[in-house]
Amino acid sequence: MTDYKHGINTTRDSDISLEAVQAARVQVAVGTAPINLLEDPGSAVNVPILVKNREEVKKCFGINNDYEKYTLMQTALASFQKLGIAPAVMINVLDPNRPEHVTAVSGEEFTLTKGSVTVEAEGILLNSLVISDAGTQGKMNQDYIAAFDGNGNVTIAVTSDGAFKNASTLTIAYTKLNPEGVTAEDIIGGVTEDGVRTGIELADEVYSRFGVIPDIISAPKYSADPAVAAALEAKAELIGDLTNAIAVIDIESAETTKINDVKAAKDKLGAFTRWTVLCWPKVLMGGHEIYASAAVAAMLQYVSADNGGIPTSLDNKAVPIDGVVLEGGKELHLTQMQVNNFLNAIGVVSFAYLGGWKCWGNNTAAYPECNEPNNRFIKCVMISNYLENRFKTEYLPLIGTDGRYKMVDSIVSNYNADLNALVPDYLAGASVVFNKEENPLSDILEGHFRFHTRYADYTPTEYIENAFTWDSQILQAAFEGGE
Q1: What percentage of the chain carries pLDDT values higher than 90?
Q2: Band of the pLDDT at 9, cuts 50, 70, 90?
Q3: Do 282 and 160 fall within a single domain?
Q4: For the chain, what is the domain count?
Q5: Which of 54, 154, 449, 467 has the fewest CB atoms within 10 Å, counting from its CB?
Q6: 10 is a domain residue
Q7: Is residue 89 located within the same domain as residue 116?
Q8: Is this model's pTM higher than 0.90 or not?
Q9: What is the pLDDT of residue 25?
């Protein structure tokens, strides 16, 4: 059947994407996507894909508004539609070739209306359709044509010269995606004997595939599982055996419904390292309930890009949310003092309404057990990662070259120049040296060279106090002066 176009038509969609700022560093999100909407769903299974806008998400993963089932849509919403920050690397683990990731739906009779019918079900795999009438099974593109409508449902139209041309009903069976079948183990992934990576382990391939440093990693929804949280923390500490990152992790809000229970939930989750940013509860964004980690990961990337590519604090920065909610959508109205005392004080980032919604909190999960600024403050950890990652990636090409004084001098001169460019706007001071005392001849003979960088970045402003005193003498002086 030819789709002969003659006349006038309109279509509609909701695409409110902002023009994305392209960051030098990326966030990596692991989760699920509506890949049944793709021509080849298998092309987006357990493979890192760099996307720069909503249109690329649609092309590479499919796109819909079911944010609970398809968690990568949360990253797309926060990053591309609400903050306009890119790129992001997305990793989908929902696999239609795994029995637990799909659901078979037995044949059901549908009535045709003017030769077509719409099956209102999400996640249908087109190549799984089994359509029959009176025992005769039809063939795609011969007896019928199937396509997705704007809501992700499947519309089936019979051809005028096919086996179903006189049919009034059709029996339709199919297989659809089952995102609920994705487990913590799927998100964590692993490495096979053949070296094939899946899940979070695919973060190791980001730098070699795309030449960008993955400095923020997340798994919205799934990170509330202790095993996933542990895997994200471990991966953030060293990605690809080379660089460091920050893991943004959710504390669940289905059972943890009271703010004074969050401490126990953090202990149960078991996340206490400098590499981790913990978030609670969920947020409303664009009218949709999403996990806070999707919003916070996008914010961390956004504020750094807005700061010349240098990490900075997300504390007290405006965040495009409409409120904070528990699992299921119940809104919370927390005061600044509640967020301070029950969340920030235990190393959890949240949100406060201060004439507009703001991210609120500076501490990593290491706080309060750890008070050292470079371990406690999110911004200081990210500056540390930035400096170390920059040194490792920029001077890696010198490995294998002759260990001459010229090589040593070039590192000292060039890296000092890089550091000096950051002082005083981003660093209070910094320098790198090559000390003879730290480089004995025995190490030089082994080809080991040790440099020493000392630096200090500015700690974020946690608290400002101004003592106001009502002074009666000022009043007295005013009257005496008047006389």
Answers
A1: 93
A2: very low
A3: no
A4: 3
A5: 467
A6: no
A7: no
A8: yes
A9: 76
Q: 169-213 pLDDT, tens per residue?
A: 999 999 999 999 999 999 999 999 999 999 999 999 999 999 999
Same domain, yes or no, for 86 and 116? no
The residues that bridge with 180 in the sheet, in sequence order, are none
120-154, pLDDT tens digit by residue? 999 999 999 999 998 899 999 999 999 999 899 99
Q: Do 89 and 103 fall within a single domain? A: no
Buried b (16+ CB within 10 A) or exposed e, 398-426: eeeeeeeeeeeeebeeebeeebeebeeeb
My answer on whether 359 and 427 are in the same domain is no
Question: Does any domain span residue 1?
Answer: no
Token pair 């990253």 in the structure block, residue: 75
- Confidence band for 7, pLDDT divided at 50, 70 and 90: very low
d(CA 454, CA 351): 34
Q: Are 120 and 208 contained in the same domain?
A: no
pLDDT score recorded for residue 316: 97
Residue 368 falls within a domain, yes or no? yes
Identify the domain containing residue 130 by its residue range. 99-180
Same domain, 254 and 337: yes
- Domain check: are 411 and 442 in the same one? yes
Residue range 369-392: mean pLDDT, rounded: 96
pLDDT in tens, 317-342: 999 999 999 999 999 999 999 999 99
